[in-house]
Amino acid sequence: MRITEVRVHQLSAKLKERFGWSLNWAQERHATLVEVLTDAGITGWGDGDFGGDKLIANPQLVIGRSPFAVEAIFDELRSPGGKQQRVGSPAAAGLDVALWDIIGKALGEPVWRLLGKQYRDRVQPYCTAMYRKDWPDLATGLAAEAMEWKARGYSLIKMKIGYGPEVDVEVVRAVRNAIGPETGLAVDSNCAYDAGTAARLGKLLEPFALLWWEEPLLANDYTGYARLREAFAIPLAGGETMFTDELIQHYVQPRLVDILQPDIEHVGLTGGRRLTYLTWLNHMRLIPHNWGTAVRTVSELHWAATIPPVSEGLYAPPVMIEFDRTESPFRDAVVAEPVDIGRDGKLPVPDKPGLGITVLPEAVESFRKNLIVIC
Asked: Is 250 a catalytic residue?
């Protein structure tokens, strides 16, 4: 079986209502789906990067090769000139996922079985929503939205902060009071602060029993994160924008944060498998970040199924993934199978071959703004 063609579907759709965070406002959503075709009639899908200019200029890095060379392709596409580059080396992560999808379909096995041991067949999600909207009062609006997500069955919720220390304390207090102490609450400030400001704010947020504080600083402010580890008791989380090698060197080896949050968009399933072992070895929690289509969500479910618990304790922190619930016209529309929580509040891991989902080409085409074909 050989790879014959790679199709890159770049999607875009306008939102009915804009939402904002510490850095910007979103008026539309974007995503990239990578479709890989083979001479055996098996097609694979992934959500994320496809290799960019490097693959366009050197299609022989993928075209004509066996999908089973997935790890070799991963390493060759992330390294300039075929040489190893340990820091800052991007990967064709969406292409990588599509190759794992093909391998699973060819073998008649779900992807999680190819990645390692299955520790769970249902994964605990945390609900990502709670962005800034055009409310008359931000604290009131966020508190009301939080109560809606709790009523829908979500026991873990993440909200955006990063609007200034005084406003952050006000909105977190309002949300915590609304949902009560029994609902888990995490916050994400999207790199809004410097280390000094974050150190002061962290002490003010401690009374609200937060699950973690995500990206208080720029992702490469390694000295700042080391300072924050000693400044307050809230667990630190981050890493969503970084590539596999950067995460290993700057986050995992020095245990820079308490919770590593790589996104399959940047690390693929190949990089994810490497990070799974290294985070476990370094006693770090691994909670994949997730922002894209349902293809990415399902890919991360396969990954999360194989992440070992951080300890053998009866009450060890759960392995979970991010479950984006913000408005996205195409997120769920591009697959035939709905991806949603069950009565137990968890997401089922597909057990069909490959990723176990059916991508709908007509839906992909309806949201597609650009198509790149590599053959």
From this structure: no
